[in-house]
Amino acid sequence: MNLGFEYPWVLLGLGLCLLPIWRIGAVANPYPWLAILPIDPLSLAISALIRLLGGLAIGGLILGLAGAYLQEQQVERIGHGAHIVMLLDRSNSMDNTFAGKTPETQGEESKASAARRLLNQFVDQRAHDLIGIAAYSTSPLFVLPLTENKAAIHAAIDATALPALAYTNVSKGLSMALEFFDSRPVTGSRIVLLVSDGAAVIDPDSEAALRELFKQRQVSLYWVFLRTANSPGLFEMPDDPRDDNAQAMPERYLHLFFNSLHIPYQAYEAETPGALQQAIDDINRLENRPLHYVERIPKQDLSTRCYAWAAAMLLGLLGLKLCETRP
Amino acid sequence: MSIAPNFKDYRFCLLAAALLSLSVVFFHPQTSAQVSLYRLVFVVDITRSMNTEDYQLDKQPVSRLQFVKHALRQELLKLPCGSQVGLGVFTERRSTLLFEPIEVCSGFAEIDAALAALDWRMAWAADSRIASGLLSTLEMLQGKDQNLVFFSDGQEAPPPNPRYKPDLSALKDKVAGVIIGVGGDQLAPIPKFDAKGQRQGFYKPEDVPHRSSFGESDLNPEKIQGYDARNAPFGSEAASGDEHMSRLHESYLRQLAAESGLQYRRLTDADSLDQALQQAAFAKPGTHTVDSSWRYAGLALLFLVMVYLK
Questions:
Q1: So where does this one cross the membrane (chain A) (predicted)?
Q2: Is the pLDDT of residue A265 over 60?
């Protein structure tokens, strides 16, 4: 039991519980000689009961006034869910539509806003997940740690509505996303959800570092590639073999790199908002391994119960008061 | 024997009054109190000059950025529950938001972690065009019910050319907020880091541009040594200066604040930040319901104690 009090100093008032011992709080009837009265166990018991009721009523009131509560408790539970780090691309091209144009007419949705809408829905569907957010452009931006605070996650996803930044440096972004799992117990699924509309060449140094990180952290990777119409896709082979290199087709090569990591990896080529929905549905379906999670039971107020207790005692006293006899 | 006389007994009346008073508690009486809530968006300059170590924490020199982070984390504890805080960073010529305002009490751990993670290496480009950055921030926040808190040391890199000053007048008074000047009055060296984040001494005069060399000079061409309109619009002499050192450019920030209709305050310690932020101009009325059942329970206690007094 972790009992706590909002105003512990009020507990000093518990001294008042002794009042009924000093006075019984009943009408005193004159009697010629008290010593003549025989000792009556029943009377003594009733007298003790009356005093006890009074003391308990005062005690209940004092505990209620002191604001008794049960402290917040953490209960470990097992559910289904994942630790998800969303790695969001903030490069310029995310502000365009899937057709590669600036959104003009109503009803046209930029890639960023489509991603935002769907990610917000996704977050609401995942009840027990811890979700962290990182963003990247030329450099990685730490946004939110792994958290269950849904309001905060929505606030961070909504902030991507603002104009995007500079270029795409996916390797730094990935290393930051993997750092989120440092010093976290391995439980449930660990997911990096990369949402981007392009890729960049990963230099050999960071490639080696990433390989190691992915292996150590036991992370599965989902890449939602928001493909713009007519841009080279992940699975496309170039017409001209001379174009088959990382500079000309960074997306294809990044995909090959992810495949070579030997981790659970799934790529989605989303050319319309509907395809992005498909990717999110898949994650919902696949990534539901048993997860140890800590459920917080919020602080429970006990003062109302104390008052109810005191009220019951008062009711008893009132009843007894009606039984009093008078001379 | 009748119980009728008992109804007239003063102790009975006191007990009944106590019970009556206590029964009010079960209807959850509440009073609402007016409180000042805040909706602030912190935008922190993360350009290199913010690494200058001219603040002290626990007698250790710390960089301006670290001090700003420290002051902000302290401030989080001081803001009343129900207030909201958003966070953004500024570098190059614009700023970006990391998250929209989050409620400070329920989101304390998250905001605190995001503040702790602020780093100059988040910068996506290396210029420091503060006036443009302020303009983009104001554009971003206009029409939202949020107050801007913009932290900067006012050191533009390269130095501003008044001829190409961004025009803030269109956004003047559109966003209420405050520019917080960060840094000391004395010139201090700016630490230099390599690509891996290792410290490599300080910036030297030859490392930084000492004047803007874009477009035309704002000076009268006749005053410029070796002026040539096409080949040397800034003259033939190499610029020299102390741009490799940094201090708080307070007059420049004051000027920006005046042009954009923001206030200007200076960051000296965590309390100065609290005074700058928790001011009436930024307060938004909020109601806070207070449980007032203690009054009725207290009254009941009073009645009950009186039963035993005589």
A1: 42-70
A2: yes
